[in-house]
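We were asked to recover a plausible sequence for a given structure. The inputs and outputs are reproduced exactly as logged, with field labels preserved.

PROBLEM: sequence recovery
POSITIONS: 345
GIVEN STRUCTURE:
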């Protein structure tokens, strides 16, 4: 159980995005994340992918290095590179035998014969100081000519990961799919338990005509949307946990969204119980003092192992560098009780 706190623009969401990119180092991942950053994936040819890099300085590689449980590193590099001939493309050098690249080969040849420059977003994994290409997307002034993720992605870390951005709308058909999968996995009673965290009068849940319906004591079934955002948000988190394979990672940005502070401690207890049952690592962010306080109270309670909880404060230094401070539960409790800074202030 990992909770990350900090001020606005302290890098909390960027940290979560870095984890996702390290696990899935492909251009499609960048496009997915851009949808929640209000960025257009169809950028101008001259500035393609520039804003992915710090201050737009694309001549400096992005490096995302993660230490894994087995003691090894998953070390990902992202580079924006230019090509003036076919041999300069990592698509050509590493994936030239694929059908996807063969279909675009003639277009590239004609393009380079006119002395034009192609720009690529290239993903590499570092193996013993040797950068091995993982995937690539190349564009020209005519648009994207090549996007290639190799079919065999075993060089990347393949683990079950679910990312819940703070701005992601919850689509009902997706929620129903998670519900059906969770029920098939035998979790119906736990689903009702999750709903009781917000409203103890709810008795049943069922899908009907592309909707999820809930019923209270002595009431008819009603669409879940009439029960408020908190019910939907908590149900989405619970169903995601029940649907993920064991030993997965659940990443939640701004976990407090739509949930009243009086329910925070119940939510943490529930998520913790699922994480133990299914061996799921939870990584979440928050702005909320109440959410941090509830998280810390759970970590200090007698029936949990406090070593399974970590609170990380993200803060900016005077030199505008972002640093992470791991605050032990007893220290965090002291800071909360005495109105000390613990959210990057």
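RECOVERED SEQUENCE:
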């Amino acid at each position: 159980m990992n909770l990350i706190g900090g001020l606005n623009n302290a890098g909390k969401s960027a940290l979560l995005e870095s984890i996702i990119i390290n696990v899935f180092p492909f251009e499609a991942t960048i496009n997915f994340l851009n949808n929640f950053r209000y960025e257009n994936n169809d950028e101008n040819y001259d500035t393609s992918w520039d804003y992915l890099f710090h201050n737009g300085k694309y001549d400096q590689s992005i490096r995302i290095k993660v230490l894994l449980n087995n003691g090894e590193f998953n070390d990902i590099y992202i580079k924006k590179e230019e090509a003036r001939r076919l041999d300069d493309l990592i698509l050509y050098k590493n994936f030239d035998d694929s059908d996807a690249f063969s279909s675009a080969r003639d277009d590239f040849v004609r393009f380079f014969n006119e002395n034009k420059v192609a720009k690529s977003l290239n993903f590499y994994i570092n193996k013993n100081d040797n950068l091995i290409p993982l995937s690539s997307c190349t564009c020209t002034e005519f648009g994207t000519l090549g996007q290639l993720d190799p079919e065999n992605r075993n060089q990347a870390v393949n683990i079950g990961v679910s990312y819940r951005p703070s701005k992601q709308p919850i689509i009902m058909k997706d929620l129903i799919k998670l519900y059906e999968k969770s029920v098939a996995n035998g979790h119906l009673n736990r689903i009702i338990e999750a709903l009781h965290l917000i409203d103890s009068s709810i008795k049943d849940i069922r899908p009907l005509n592309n909707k999820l319906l809930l019923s209270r004591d002595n009431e008819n079934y009603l669409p879940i949307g009439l029960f408020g955002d908190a019910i939907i948000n908590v149900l989405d988190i619970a169903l995601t946990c029940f649907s993920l394979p064991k030993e997965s990672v659940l990443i939640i940005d701004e976990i407090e969204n739509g949930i009243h502070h009086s329910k925070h401690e119940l939510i943490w207890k529930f998520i913790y119980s699922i994480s133990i049952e299914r061996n799921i690592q939870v990584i979440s962010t928050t702005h909320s003092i109440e959410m941090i306080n509830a998280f810390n109270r759970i970590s200090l309670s007698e029936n949990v192992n406090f070593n399974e909880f970590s609170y990380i404060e993200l803060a900016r230094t005077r030199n505008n560098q972002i640093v992470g401070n791991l605050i032990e539960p007893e220290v965090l409790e002291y800071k909360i009780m005495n109105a000390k800074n613990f959210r990057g202030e």
